[in-house]
Each structure stands twice: as C-alpha cells, then as structure tokens.
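Student: Hello, beginner here. Can you help me understand the protein record under this note? Any guidance would be welcome.
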Amino acid sequence: MATKSYTAIVEREGSGYVALCPELDVASQGDTVESATANLKEAVELFLECADPAEVERRLHTEVFVTRFEAANG
C-alpha cells in the first residue's frame, strides 16, 4: 500500500481540538492534539478507501502552504 504525506492543521476548540487536512478538506477532532491528529489520519484513510477516485481528484489540493504573518490590530 502506497503512502503519501498530508498536512494537519490543529486548533483548540472549546475543551478539545479540531484537525483539518486542507489537501482533501477532511476534518476530525479529539481531546488532545495527538488524538485529533490520529483521528484525522483515520478519517483521511477511510475517505481515500471509500471515495470514488473522481471525488478524490476533485477535492485534492496539491499545493498547500501553511505560514504565519503579522497584521495590525486596532
């Protein structure tokens, strides 16, 4: 089975964490960063296993950049 690297963007939401894979627009959640990331991995694997190849191709973003910037506040 081939593997591919994906991005996980994780943020706190309430008392837990939400994880997003921007390449496929798949999200999951968990009580910790680690569990949210593990749940996201499982969700992505299930999506890739079950989705029609055309759906995967339609949703796949091949260039995702995560960066930070500063903005004036007030």
User: Anything to note?
Assistant: Residues 33-50 form the longest helix (18 residues). Residues 20 and 61 are 13 Å apart (CA to CA). The chain has a mean pLDDT of 96. Residues 9-59 form one domain.
